Amino acid sequence: MSHAAIADKRPSTLRGASLPKWTPWAIAAGSVALGLGISAAAGLDSKIQWALMAGVLFVTGTYVVAARVEGRRQAKDRVATSFVWVAFLLAVIPLLSLVWATVQRGTKVLDVYFLTHSMGVVADSEAGGGIYHAIIGSLEQVGLATVIGAPIGVLTAIYLVEYGRGNLARAVTFFVDVMTGIPSIVAGLFILSLMLMWDMQPFGFAGSLALAILMMPVVVRSTEEMLKLVPNELREASLALGVPKWRTILKVVLPTSIGGITTGIMLAIARIAGETAPVLLLVFGNPFINNDPFEGAQASLPLFIYQQYSQSAGSTAAYDRAWAASLTLIAFVMILNLAARGIARWKAPR
Amino acid sequence: MAKRIDVSGLTAYYGSHKAIEDISMTIEPRSVTAFIGPSGCGKSTFLRTLNRMHEVTPGGRVEGKVLLDDEDLYGHGIDPVSVRREVGMVFQRPNPFPTMSIFDNVAAGLRLNGKYKKSELSDVVEKSLKGANLWNEVKDRLNKPGSGLSGGQQQRLCVARAIAVEPDVLLMDEPCSALDPISTLAIEDLIGELKERFTIVIVTHNMQQAARVSDRTAFFNLAAVGQPGKLIEIDETERIFSNPSVQATEDYISGRFG
Q1: pLDDT digit string (tens) for A19-70?
Q2: pLDDT at A9 over 60
Q3: Which B-chain residues 115-174 have CB contacts (< 8 A) with chain A?
Q4: Within-domain flag for A6
Q5: Which residues form the ABC transmembrane type-1 domain (chain A) (predicted)?
Q6: Distance from C-alpha of A113 to C-alpha of B121, rounded to nearest angstrom
Q7: Interface test with A, best of B56, B104, B112, B158 (most A CBs within 10 A)
């Protein structure tokens, strides 16, 4: 009894005054209203201006209110929280608006006909036609690039993590770093110089080679990180059973990290699927269906988008096709990413 | 089966750092030999030189001789992979392969070496799991992942995996340091059974454990941090714990230093 009485009389040192839960929302609503009011009064009609004003008002308002009621530490905490939220919104808004714009404009002409027909007999300014030729071109070029780039990348990473010691490994790491920074157009020009040397015409596989160059360092980097994550104890456990090193790598290290490696490869594929510059130089583009990546010019999705947009200025039909192709490309990349996540989850060590 | 190990003048390096110096000892077959000593004195390093795992560490190299029944493990033309098939190892922390089931973990040594008959495989797995006192606990879930077991079960799984390839010698590097007392007891009982068939070498920080499980005990020490570790003495466990011939051993065992 006496304990309770004493405890009641003493002010708690642990509990301080705190703002109700709805405070941030109230401050947000207030600052938006105030921001709108100020811009209306000042006769400003830009949306960005009132939003910026509301943002500044929200942060200062939160700080002042919280500092008065809760104290300075909590006020700083609230300000930091609101900065994090602002950064999050700033990052998400462009992404959402991009997806929104692409879906809105892309769905206009996107249908089965569009996906299964080429531009063979359709002039760029006319409506109709489709992107079948570009899808085929993209799939073949990216597929071939992956067939070349992914194994080389994975093997390089295996060398660096499992075997690489000394100067050679350092040199390989250095050149992989340099390759990561190669602009796609430079990779394209490199292959173009070879093509000119042997007097060749544009064809799909040349584009694949340039894309493979761009893909390799990305695959090396991600695979390297994944292999480093495999605990050394597993390698030692396997070696101690009398398993040779190469079988240890093949049967223990790679299965343990295969989920992450696949994710890395998928992301690298997503990256090269959107490359335009080397394809423009080396594959040239072609309105007709060309199924042979080793002979003759081909189309590809990013190149198709670029050409529809640039070469037929003012034609709504071409614009619509470009947006629909963009949507297809985004969908392709998203499906790849989802597949990568699925594989990573499915293959994750339990 | 169980083979004798004769070590003479063994020195091991990590790069330019000398980790252990001039160690000579004989490890008897069908017995348990325990290594004790303060941290950093090179017990584990010495253990790893006995199946050529030391050289897996970058910069690791060895001078001297390790005879396994008269054959020098560091002799010319000896394949470290074959050495490790005859001298198995259990590590400090249980490390079952996370991508494999319990069955596959035990079968891993045979499968990865590629030398087995399919029909024999399940017999070998059953025998090894029984040998590791784990069969009754896992026989209904052989296809479940090995990482779903408790720590003590995982460690016995690792023992089963190591004995499935029928080694001559089993090295154990602090096999109980990550386990609770009950699991530790299970492993110690297991060691007692396994010494009928294998030569066992165990590194431990737990002196009661060394006294409980081993027939002979070796005490390692180092003069100072950065100095190489040395073998101080090796003798019957009873003698080491009751009447050691070196003062440092007695100091260490009675807890007066280290």
Answers
A1: 788 888 888 888 888 888 888 888 777 777 777 888 888 888 888 888 888 8
A2: no
A3: 145, 147-148, 158, 161-162, 165
A4: no
A5: 135-340
A6: 56
A7: B112
Three-state DSSP at B88 gives strand
Q: B5-253: CATH homologous superfamily?
A: P-loop containing nucleotide triphosphate hydrolases (3.40.50.300)
Q: Is A68 on the interface with B (CB under 8 A)?
A: no
Q: How many CB atoms lie within 10 A of CB A326?
A: 23
- Cβ distance A234 to B88 less than 8 Å, yes or no, reads no
* Inter-CA distances, A228 with A202, A254, A344, Å: 40, 11, 16
Note the pLDDT tens digit of each residue in B122-137. 899 998 998 888 899 9
Quote the domain boundaries for residue A43.
18-105
Proportion of chain A above pLDDT 70, given as a percent: 96
Q: Which candidate in A243, A245, A346 is best for mutational testing of the B interface (most B CBs within 10 A)?
A: A243
- Cβ within 8 Å of B, A 249-278: 251-252, 255-256
Please give the pLDDT value at position A10.
Answer: 62
Cross-chain residue pair A241–B165, CB shorter than 8 Å:
yes
Q: How confident is the model at residue A90 (pLDDT cuts 50, 70, 90)?
A: confident
Is the same domain home to A288 and A186?
yes
Q: What is the pLDDT, as a whole number, of residue A168?
A: 94
CB atoms A238 and B97 under 8 Å:
yes
* pLDDT band per the 50, 70, 90 thresholds, residue B147: confident
**Residue B64 in contact with partner chain A when CB distance is under 8 A:** no
Mean pLDDT lowest among A210-214, A215-219, A221-225, A336-340: A336-340
A136 and A57 in one domain? Answer: no
Using the predicted structure, report yes or no on whether residue A348 has a pLDDT greater than 80. Answer: no
Do B98 and A256 lie within an 8 Å CB cutoff? yes
Question: Could you give the CA distance from residue A56 to residue A51 in angstroms, rounded to a whole number?
Answer: 9
Would the CB atoms of A239 and B56 count as touching at under 8 Å?
yes
Cβ(B200)–Cβ(B33) below 8 Å: yes
